[in-house]
Amino acid sequence: MTRAEDFIDDSGLPDITYRTDAPEEVVHPRVTRRDGVAMVYLHNERYTPHGGFVPVATFLQRLARREPNLAATAYRANGRQTTISFNKADRVTLSPRLQAWLSSLAAPCEGRSAAVVGFLANLMPLYVGEECDGLWCARSLQDGTLILPVDESEWDEERGTVRVLWQGDVARASEVDGGDIATLALERYVRLHGVGADEEAIAAELWFMAEHFRFKTGCDIYLPQLDAPPGALARLGRQAREIGQGILVNLLSP
Question: Are 178 and 57 contained in the same domain?
Answer without folding.
Answer: no
